[in-house]
């Protein structure tokens, strides 16, 4: 195929309404020109990062809206917006695996071009790390009614699957999806540069383990652990084995009729 001709078509002319509205001219100029790529996989590497940065922008903007809607206790709206955020998170995790189609050698060539950059410098990731604190404050003011209600009531003694419960679960889902991203990202690191390698900042990649243990909303995880202790009663001790119920014997099959 004629590469130059097709690359020209890929860029478009930027004149049609679709191109003008979506600013495709600038968008498609955000990647290196073909002749500047160190290998074909570098385009994929840039695009995956750029797309993920856009999903994080959408998530962060949606979380701003969620905070406003929580403040007004528009719970149905909050749940719809959280669904959007969770879907972005799922896509972010799934899309990481695209980079597993890149060979370790191709990545080593790309890596030489990255200076000492780190994903910890990502504006999207940094803002997402900051927001949960504010979301939790709004949740406790509105749904825990400034301390009048407790998570124990919502999850256990007064459990009614109400909006306070549903929104708490949406926050827990956000937390869980964040961990899933971090876990998948760690697997990607192992796949690309190996276990116990050093980052471009010269730090062992195991520093990311700390983030993998981090919980944004520890109270939402603690409430379950407390329930397990309470409901378990003898938690920590060996339980009696279940005794299987006597299974009634199947009735003997009727003998097939003989045609004779
Ligand atoms: C081959 C692919 C990738 C490799 C080898 C890789 C490697 C790394 C390494 C070594 C670090 C730690 C850097 C440090 O010392 O500060 C890191 C952090 C990070 N990377 Fe990647 N990365 C890859 C792809 C991606 C992609 C596609 C994203 C998309 C957003 C991403 C987002 C991040 C983020 C957010 C952090 C900070 C994580 C945290 O603090 O928990 N990385 N990455």
Task: Please describe what this structure looks like.
- The protein is mainly alpha-helical and 260 residues long.
- It folds into 2 domains: 1-30, no CATH class; 41-231, Methane Monooxygenase Hydroxylase, Chain G, domain 1.
- The protein has helices at residues 3-11, 17-22, 24-27, 41-71, 75-96, 104-111, 123-142, 151-157, 163-193, 208-213, 218-232.
- Helix 4 runs antiparallel to helix 5 and helix 8 crosses helix 11 (218-232).
- The longest helix has 31 residues, at 41-71.
- The model has no long low-confidence stretch (mean pLDDT 93).
- The structure holds protoporphyrin IX containing FE.
- Protoporphyrin IX containing FE is lined by residues 48-49, 52, 96, 99, 107, 118-120, 122, 125, 182, 185, 188-189, 192-193, 199, 201, 203, 205, 208, 211.
Which features does this protein show?
binds protoporphyrin IX containing FE; single chain; 0% strand; 260 residues; mainly alpha; Methane Monooxygenase Hydroxylase, Chain G, domain 1; 11 helices
Write the layout of secondary structure elements.
Layout: H1 3-11, H2 17-22, H3 24-27, H4 41-71, H5 75-96, H6 104-111, H7 123-142, H8 151-157, H9 163-193, H10 208-213, H11 218-232
Helix pairs in contact: 4-5, 4-7, 5-9, 8-11
Bound molecules: protoporphyrin IX containing FE (HEM).
């Amino acid at each position: 195929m004629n590469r130059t001709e097709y690359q020209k078509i890929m860029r478009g002319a930027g004149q049609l309404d679709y191109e003008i509205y979506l600013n495709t001219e600038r968008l498609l100029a955000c990647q290196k020109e073909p002749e500047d790529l160190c290998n074909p996989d570098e385009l994929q590497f840039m695009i995956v990062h750029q797309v993920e940065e856009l999903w994080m922008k959408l998530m962060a903007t949606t979380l701003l809206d969620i905070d406003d809607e929580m403040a007004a206790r528009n719970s149905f709206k909050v749940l719809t917006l959280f669904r959007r955020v969770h879907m972005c998170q799922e896509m972010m995790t799934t899309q990481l695996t695209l980079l597993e189609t890149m060979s370790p050698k191709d990545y080593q060539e790309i890596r030489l071009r990255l200076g000492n950059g780190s994903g910890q410098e990502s504006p999207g990731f940094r803002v997402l790390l900051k927001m949960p604190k504010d979301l939790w404050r709004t949740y406790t003011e509105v749904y825990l009614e400034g301390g009048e209600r407790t998570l124990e009531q919502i999850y256990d003694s007064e459990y009614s699957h109400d909006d306070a419960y549903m929104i708490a679960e949406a926050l827990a889902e956000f937390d869980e999806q964040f961990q899933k991203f971090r876990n998948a990202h760690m697997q990607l690191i192992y796949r690309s540069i190996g276990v116990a390698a050093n980052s471009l900042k010269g730090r062992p990649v195991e520093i990311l383990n700390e983030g993998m243990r981090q919980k944004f909303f520890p109270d939402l995880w603690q409430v379950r652990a407390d329930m397990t202790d309470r409901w378990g009663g003898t938690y920590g001790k060996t339980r009696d084995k279940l005794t299987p119920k006597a299974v009634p014997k199947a009735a003997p099959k009727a003998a097939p009729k003989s045609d004779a």
